[in-house]
Amino acid sequence: MDTTSPELETALLAWVNRFRLSKPVESWAELKDGQVLWQILHEVDPEYFKGDLPEATAQTSDSWIPRWQNSKRACLFAFDCHS
Fold first, then answer.
1. Is the pLDDT assigned to residue 2 strictly greater than 70?
2. Which stretches make up the HOOK N-terminal domain (predicted)?
């Protein structure tokens, strides 16, 4: 059950789409594999957030594990960058 308010979802999608992404994000579900977060982090600091995530986009829709691995890597790098 998704408890995210429509207002929060709309605001988050508007903020995400302010970045130069490979394609516009149109739904909340497009954020679940960590790819968009990684693109945003790369735009913020391309020297620190370089390279690719461990799981390719094509693989991330089949199982929750690759999506979790990508999200985990993006979060770990984001936290490490500012510590």
1. no
2. 9-72
Spatial CA neighbour of 37 closest among 68, 62, 63: 68
What kind of fold does domain 6-81 have according to CATH? Answer: Actin-binding Protein, T-fimbrin; domain 1 (1.10.418)
Pair 21, 36: CB distance under 8 Å: yes
Average pLDDT, the chain: 84
Nearest to 60 by CA among 69, 52, 49, 73: 69
Tell whether the torsion through CA atoms of 51, 57, 70 and 7 is positive or negative. Answer: positive
Task: Give percent helix, percent strand, percent coil of the chain, each to the nearest 5.
Answer: 55, 0, 45
Q: What contacts 24+ positions apart, CB below 8 Å, involve 57-66?
A: 57/33, 60/33, 60/34, 60/35, 61/33, 66/33
Interval 1-24 mean pLDDT: 88
